[in-house]
Write a structure and sequence with these properties.
Blueprint lengths: L1 H21 L8 E2 L1 H8 L3 H14 L2 E4 L3 E4 L4 H25 L2 H19 L3 H18 L3 H9 L2 H11 L5 H4 L2 H8 L3 H30 L2
Antiparallel strand pairs: 1-3, 2-3
Length: 221
């Protein structure tokens, strides 16, 4: 029972770090001090260390021997790699999702799509990110492939989605960009869904890189 509880806690700490990095409350190259985080969250240092090991495997932090743990900085190549990987994973899942997705899952995606409009109108980007991530997660889940699910999680989808949405000027762009994806899923049209996902991630990659360049120029002034 202790192992299960500790694993659950370390996953919660992992989400804590992901949110902090996504919202840039933990800045690139900032040092993470395990004892400080453990005290702040009221958890064991072991749980924090487990979460950091997972973050390291995901490429979100870098553990330097005798120096500590640091948030990995963004760069153009990592942004491109992340979206190209997502395109591969979700494009692969598309035919299976069209075949397997339940009406309940489709209704959930419709609800998430509606909530995106609400959060965009409020400029609540954090909630918009969560809706976006859960929308795409339904496509992966519908493929019914546990290995694919793990690969999608390792791809740090919340991290890169958050970075893109948080820095883009037009918050209304993101809800609209999901309309055709949902439509093709409802129609069970796998070919057009694959094509639409490809366009979706190509556009997201372009936006992310453009925002990164703009952000870097601002920070270097």
């Amino acid at each position: 029972m202790e192992i299960i509880n500790r694993s659950t806690i370390s996953n919660q700490v992992l989400e804590y770090f992901r949110d902090k990095i996504m919202n840039q409350e933990l800045r690139p190259n900032e040092r993470i001090i395990e004892t400080r985080v453990a005290k702040e969250l009221g958890v064991s240092q072991g749980s924090v260390r487990e979460a950091i090991q997972k973050l390291d495997a995901m490429g979100l932090v870098k553990v330097k021997p005798y120096s500590g743990t640091f948030v990995r900085p963004f760069d153009e190549k990592r942004l491109k790699d992340a979206y190209e990987l997502r395109n591969l994973l979700e494009g692969f899942s598309a035919p299976y999702a069209c075949e397997n997705i339940s009406e309940q899952a489709i209704e959930r995606m419709k609800q998430l799509r509606s909530e995106m409009d609400i959060y965009a109108a409020r400029n609540d980007r954090r909630s918009l990110v969560k809706c976006d991530v859960e929308f795409h997660r339904e496509i992966i889940l519908a493929a019914d492939n546990s290995i694919l699910e793990k690969m999608w999680d390792i791809a740090c989808v919340p991290q890169w989605t958050g970075y893109t949405i948080m820095l883009h000027d037009d918050v209304y762009y993101f809800p609209k960009s999901h309309d055709n994806i949902l439509s093709y899923l409802v129609q069970r049209d796998s070919q057009n869904l694959i094509s639409e996902l490809n366009n979706h991630f190509d556009n997201a990659k372009t936006i992310a890189v453009k925002n990164w360049i703009k952000h870097e120029k601002t920070n270097n002034k």
